Amino acid sequence: MHLLKWLYPGMRFKRWLFLFAVGVMMVSLGLAVVFNYKYIDNIEELIFRTVYMWTGTYYYMVTAVVGSVVILVGSIIMLLATRMIIRSVITVLLPDSSDKLVDLIYEKRKLNRGPAVTVIGGGTGLSVLLRGIKEATSNVTAVVTVADDGGSSGRLREELGIIPPGDLRNCLVALADTEPLMEKLFQHRFGGTSELAGHSFGNLFIAAMTEVTGDVETALKESSKVLAVKGRVLPASTEIVRLNATMTDGSVVEGESQIPLVHKRIHRVHLSPEHVKPVASSIEAIKKADAIILGPGSLYTSIMPNLLVDDVAKTLRESKAVKIYICNVMTQSGETDGYTASMHAKAILDHAGPGSIDYVLVNSGVISPELQEFYAKQNSFPVLVDEDELNALGVGFVKADIISETNVIHHDPVKLSRNVMKMVYGLKANPENMRMLDYYMTGNKLK
Predict the structure, then answer these.
(1) Cα-flanking dihedrals φ and ψ of residue 295, to 5°?
(2) Residue 414: which H helix or E strand, with range?
(3) pTM of this prediction?
(4) Would you say 360 and 398 are in contact if contact means Cβ atoms under 8 Å apart?
(5) Which run of H or of E encompasses 184?
(6) Domain check: are 84 and 136 in the same one?
(7) In the chain, how many domains are there?
(8) How far apart are CA 37 and CA 39, in angstroms?
(9) Residue 421 contacts by C-beta under 8 Å, 6 or more apart in sequence?
(10) Are residues 46 and 138 in the same domain?
């Protein structure tokens, strides 16, 4: 049965096997012409005589039966030989994966047929979604915020004059298809009291690659090769920016890391400088997307900075793609205190304009009282899904269990990506999409 996997739909193998078979038949015909047809007649006569010796009678259909058996055996030999040739090459190039060659090819073909998905955001929430979405499509692009000014990223930004690499690193690792050791290496954070203390190896790697290549886009592209990334990771802009917030009391807070610390209600956020040139590839990814996902992540400090870059919000509004905002499960202390689902969505519409959201994905999973009590101590509470207010905004909403409950509350990457893909495929109905929709609803492997 393992051999028959090479004949799965979408493998792009059968066409070449057929061409190989045509070549074999042409060679066989040529040999028959060269060596005269009488030899073929002799073989046919030998078959008849052999059958007569065994049965005592002639069967005039015997040549057709024997010929069919020969064709079947020959086809199996061709398939096996072709497989072994490919296996021999792959064993040299990918020795650890040679036993799963057909599964790797099938999975690659399936992912390549997936929809073009552009995800906009930053922080840990975005990386959670990417971990799940990479199992559904390899045509995924992460457009990542560059407003981070805290921790290792902030230090590298100030010392080297580069865009903060932290969120970019998290997205690269989330989309990586590589050894766990490599992931641990990129996420490793140096301890001690030296100047390296607090820096992650991945941040330093991206910073070094940027200096070597002279361009952050090229640095991310080359880093993606090291990690065998499924998809692309792009910054919203390559310019150094600062995120500022105007509060409802009229005060202004400067710096992304400082905004949540003042514990005031945010009226609006804006970038300094006001006009920031976008990365052309990021704009193109939004234009060509079949689906655009905003979040999950911090509303004002992870999602909004991307929408404030020139042309990003405009391109988002004009896109014909399905636009989905993934609402946070819990409010964020100092940023979205007391916010409902509609208030999250309205904040995006106020900053990016009408038409920037089609649907809001909200959590319907039950959060245990113990976890609610734990988060209440941090002034964080479940986001209320106010359905009437969402409808009044002119956006649709989908309720689903998208959380993973352990000792803390996070979005579950599998649940989250499965529900996102159900929305993407369900909103664009055709036979292929219905087949994929069934896969995401049941979790059964595609055949």
Answers:
(1) 85, -165
(2) helix 413-426
(3) 0.77
(4) yes
(5) helix 180-187
(6) no
(7) 2
(8) 5
(9) 133, 136, 137, 436, 440
(10) no
What is the distance between the alpha carbons of residues 411 and 418, in angstroms, rounded to a whole number? Answer: 12
Contact 293/118 with Cβ under 8 angstroms? yes
Cis peptide before 273 (omega within 30 of 0): yes
Residue with tokens 């990479």: 134
Same domain, 335 and 419: yes
Tokens for 152, please give them.
């290792």
| Res. 2: pLDDT tops 70 | no
Q: Are residues 128 and 23 in the same domain?
A: no
Residues 247, 352, single domain; the answer is yes
Pair 361, 326: CB distance under 8 Å: yes
| Contact of 220 with 210, CB cutoff 8 Å | no
The pLDDT tens digits of the residues spanning 121-161 come to: 998 889 889 988 888 888 999 999 999 888 888 888 888 88
The answer to the question of residue 17 being in a domain is: yes
Domain end: 98, 131, 156, which one?
98
Residue type, 347: A
Residue 87, domain extent:
3-98
Which candidate, 281, 245, 285, places its Cα nearest to that of 265?
245
Task: Using alpha carbons, select from 111, 8, 129 the residue that is nearest to residue 436.
Answer: 111
pLDDT at position 24, please?
A: 77
- CA atoms of 422 and 416, how far apart (whole Å): 10
Structure tokens at 418: 């499965």
Both 329 and 390 in one domain: the answer is: yes
Q: Please report the DSSP string for 302-333 in residue order.
A: IIHHHHTSTTHHHHHHH--SEEEEE--SB--T
**CATH number of the domain to which 129 belongs:** 3.40.50.10680
Q: How far is Cα 356 from Cα 325, in angstroms, rounded to an integer?
A: 9
Q: Per-residue pLDDT for 18 more than 70?
A: yes
* Domain-ending residue, one of 98, 131, 155: 98
Mapped onto helix, strand or coil, the DSSP state of residue 39 is helix
Pair (92, 138) in one structural domain = no
Nearest to 446 by CA among 421, 428, 409: 421
DSSP 243: E
**Same-domain check for residues 393 and 265:** yes
Tokens 């991945």: give the residue: 202
